[in-house]
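Design request, tokens follow.
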């Protein structure tokens, strides 16, 4: 009976001991740590902050201290936060490691459960390449003229930009985003211009534009114009004289010359084959007979036309030239030669008339009635 009582008392004391065990003797949970990098992705040079968040620290025990340490490329830590210098980092992924220790000063982390570590990752992105546009003003140039070339470059990350320019012809030079193009020495047509931009990281972009060098205006080359042709042969007694119908034509030619004071006239006399043969025979005879007469109807026709225009229509003699042609015809061809035209290039086969030898035919007045009566009385 007594032994049963002892067992009961011992059991009660054991239970009481368990119930009244001081709480300070319980084992503390281990320290934990987490870390986050913000922002998680950046371009070189942009800031990154890493924050460490501990868990299960004994904040009620003032005798304990907490110590943080940080490691990683370019990492500088201060307490629960660290910063990362990213300007020298190449594109890629990076990890920052944080560690926390708890314990008495100088003995932090020596006991189990008093330390923890964590890692946070971030990414350094490649700089985006620049873009560029290019234009030239004016874009249509005369030979020797210039144009202003303007380039507009944009760096998504605002990196410093450098511009260069090139042209397929002519020359171009400039500083910054503007260049001056000179078309001197360039052929007419399109000239390609290339605008280049580069950032300080070696990224480049190219754009192109063009200018058109127009051909200089060249005034059309004036040419000799054939005017009316005067026919002969109706008057066998005066085969080199222009009749009234021919004079009407010459009056129109005189008007043309008056309207174009800087133009000249070339009168080309022609003779038919029979007349040419006779003239050739007379010239051959004159070679042996000094005073022999040579009748050149082609030359006389041209000289007589000039004489009419000068004496009757008041045209300056210096504006009219006379020549003979090779056509088999009894006619005079008239050519208007505008300023700048080349008659010899436009009309071939003519020979200038020597006006010191061939003189215009003297116009004799028609016989009067008295003259006819006198002649009849003599008969």
């Amino acid at each position: 009976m007594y032994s049963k009582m002892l067992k009961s008392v011992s059991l009660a004391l054991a239970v009481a001991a368990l119930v009244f065990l001081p709480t300070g003797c319980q084992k503390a949970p281990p320290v934990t740590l987490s870390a986050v990098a913000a922002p998680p992705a950046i371009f070189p040079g942009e800031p990154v902050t890493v924050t460490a968040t501990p868990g299960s620290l004994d904040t009620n025990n003032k005798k304990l201290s907490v110590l943080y340490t940080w490691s990683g490329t370019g990492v500088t830590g201060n307490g629960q936060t660290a910063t990362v210098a990213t300007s020298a980092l190449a594109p890629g992924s990076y990890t920052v490691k944080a560690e926390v220790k708890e314990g008495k000063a100088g003995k932090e982390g020596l006991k189990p459960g008093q330390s923890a570590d964590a890692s946070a990752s971030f990414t350094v992105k490649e700089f985006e390449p620049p873009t560029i546009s290019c234009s030239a003003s004016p874009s249509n140039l005369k030979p020797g003229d210039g144009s202003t070339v303007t380039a507009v470059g944009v760096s998504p990350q605002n990196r410093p930009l450098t511009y260069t320019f090139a042209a397929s012809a002519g020359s171009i030079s400039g500083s910054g985003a503007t260049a001056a193009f000179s078309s001197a020495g360039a052929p007419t047509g399109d000239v390609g211009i290339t605008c280049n931009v580069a950032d300080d990281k070696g990224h480049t972009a190219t754009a192109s534009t063009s200018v058109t060098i127009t051909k200089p205006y060249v005034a059309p080359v004036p040419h000799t114009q054939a005017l009316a042709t005067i026919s002969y042969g109706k008057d066998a007694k005066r085969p080199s004289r222009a009749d009234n119908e021919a004079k009407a034509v010459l009056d129109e030619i005189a008007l043309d010359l008056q309207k174009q004071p800087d133009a000249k006239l070339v009168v080309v006399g022609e003779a038919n084959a029979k007349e040419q043969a006779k003239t050739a025979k007379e010239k051959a005879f004159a070679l042996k007979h000094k005073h022999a007469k040579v009748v050149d109807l082609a030359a006389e026709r041209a000289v007589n036309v000039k004489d009419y225009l000068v004496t009757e229509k008041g045209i300056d003699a210096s504006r009219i030239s006379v020549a003979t042609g090779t056509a088999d015809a009894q006619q005079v061809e008239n050519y208007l030669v505008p300023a700048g035209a080349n008659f010899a290039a436009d009309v071939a086969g003519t020979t200038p008339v020597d006006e010191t030898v061939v003189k215009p035919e003297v116009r004799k007045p028609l016989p009067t009635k008295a003259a006819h009566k006198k002649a009849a009385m003599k008969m």
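Comment from the thread starter after seeing the answer: thanks! Helices lie at 2-19, 244-259, 273-286, 297-311, 343-346, 369-378.
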